Amino acid sequence: MKNFKMSPKPVLKSLNDYPMGSSMPSFHITEGNAGWRVYRPVINHEKCVSCYRCYYVCPDGAIHKEEDNSFHVDYDFCKGCGVCAHECKLKAIDMVKEA
User: Fold this and answer.
1) For the chain, first and last CA: distance in Å?
2) Contact 93, 41 (CB under 8 A)
3) pTM for the model
């Protein structure tokens, strides 16, 4: 397992405050599950504005926010579904074929 730091817990005062995506970190249920991935998301940090969209829509909770407000993909858990890249309004995430 990668040594990702946990994202800070958001303040949830109403139902509208809850994220649309997964509510648990990627390693909450399973040890790893990315063996069948064909494409992987690569975040272009020069384009990314840290809007949280990819973080909220990732069905596996495989995108983590770091202390410097940048987002990173935990490739041990990302299945390569591409939802993050599809939903990124700035096209800051490219799906790259696995080598």
Assistant:
1) 21
2) yes
3) 0.68
